[in-house]
Design brief:
By secondary structure, this protein is α/β, with parallel strands linked by helices. The protein has a domain of 177 residues: Undecaprenyl pyrophosphate synthetase (3-Layer(aba) Sandwich). 49% of the residues lie in helices and 13% in strands. Strands 3-4-2-1-5-6 form a six-stranded parallel beta sheet, with helices on both faces. Helix 1 runs parallel beside helix 11 and helix 2 packs across helix 3. The longest helix is centred in the middle third of the chain and has 20 residues. The protein is globular. 35% of the residues are buried.
Length: 253
Amino acid sequence: MVANPIYSAYERRLFRQLRDKPLPRHVGVMLDGNRRWAKMRGAETDEGYRAGADNIANLLTWCEEVGVEIVTLWLLSTDNLVGRDAEELGPLLKIIEDVVDELAATGRWRIHPVGALEELPEATAARLRQAAEATAEIDGLLVNIAVGYGGRREIADAVRALIRDHATQGTSIEQLADFIDVEHISEYLYTKGQPDPDLVIRTSGEQRISGFLMWQSAHTEFYFCEAYWPDFRRVDFLRALRAYGERHRRFGG
């Protein structure tokens, strides 16, 4: 495809505008609108998911260009696992397995699954674990793959894990009640050890967080983009970064 010179010039101008502006270290992306993208074109639903999957490597490349260190991609929620029928869920899981394999095969990015993997079909969970193992030593962009993910479930899992750990150490309920605080719960989240997201982008025009990174996003900046995820372009990403750079982050102050 021949690049539009006007579009290319605008993209370059946006990139220049990012100079001397703060940029996010950790970006979360809610890849929304795949089904609506397919419906708008009269295509099958799985074609929308496949088109969305094909756009992920582009996003990771754009993140690398500006020095983002961590990207969290929400591909499938816990609600999707129970709310989608098997006829739709099966192809979607296959697409997720394939795109994770493709990302791992590049040798560029470190894959880290986040979510309730035990709720996924064993074949899907195994592919996610294999991708994580195969890329564990890669010193590149860290890509959190959120599959079977829900913010409430993450917090509940963190608290359960914390309680179990202390139960094995003989900690009483009274002692644990005195001990437990925000920092200790954070140590048991799916993203433990990582900085909280600075910026979360949601595509498709929806302006809800839907439980994405609920705990971690207390001070996160949000950017809502009208484009459906398969149509999300580098210029849309640069606009999100520009908006982020122009905001004054108060961190609750």
